[in-house]
Amino acid sequence: FFYTAALVALGVAFGYGGMPAVFHLPVLAFFWFFFIFIKWVMSFLDWRSDLLLVTTDEIVVVDQGSLFRVSIRQMNLDNIASVASKSQYWNLFPFGTLMFDLKEGTGNAVILQYIPQADRVASIISDALVRYQADEAARTALAESLAGARHAQDLVRQQQAAGLVSYIQVL
Question: pLDDT confidence of 118, banded at 50, 70, 90?
Answer without folding.
Answer: confident
